[in-house]
# Entry
Amino acid sequence: MDNYLQARRRMVEEQIAVRGIRDPRVLAAMVATPRHLFVPEGQWHHAYEDHPLPLDEGQTISQPFIVAAMTEALDVTPESKVLEIGTGSGYQTAILARLARMVYTVEIIQSLSVRARLVLQRLDLRNVRFRIGDGHRGWPEFAPYDRVIVTAAAETVPYQLVEQMSEGGKMVVPVGPVGVQVLTLGVKHGTKLVQRHLMGVVFVPFVHDRKPAENGRP
Ligand code: SAH
# Structure
């Protein structure tokens, strides 16, 4: 049924494990998750190669190594409640769903969210809730979150997301201008986020929803 299992095992060994990703739970989640289902069918034969791929709507699915590195840095446990901003294809969402208790994922482009939901249903990953909207606002109804991951490039650490984290919670977010960012790991202590830089990365922008609110105020 899964013609790509061999390719996937090779991807995990040759692109991910050799570059220092050691967490066995992360590696197992990546072997178990058929990445090709998350990309357009014309791209299936590229799904296990070492680079990002185009999605609809001008967005991209991240390089497998970056997904692995972000997931390992996030340190997800079976008890974790995770907030993900930028559902995109849902691939990172699926990896998180295999590791966490519950994943709440927010995407600003409706068609991507709808497609991702279908793929996760097909994989029978049920511990995920999807929201369409601007991720700068997070998802306050279900806060606090133990882990927050942002998969679009933020100019600064989004403070509303920090507010929605639990004490000791962790956040992984690419921070910097368009074109190049620093992948940042933050740990929340009190009202502060203690930050550490992990590596240079390139993500699509974390866009602002500029639509006026219903009442006409910005
Ligand atoms: N993790 C995704 C990567 C998708 S690329 C994957 O594995 O496929 C980043 C995604 O962030 C895009 O889908 C983009 O539409 C979304 N995005 C950008 N700005 C956003 C915002 N303000 N709120 C929510 N999602 C946003």
Notes: The beta strands are 53-54, 60-61, 81-85, 102-107, 128-132, 145-150, 165-175, 181-189, 192-201.
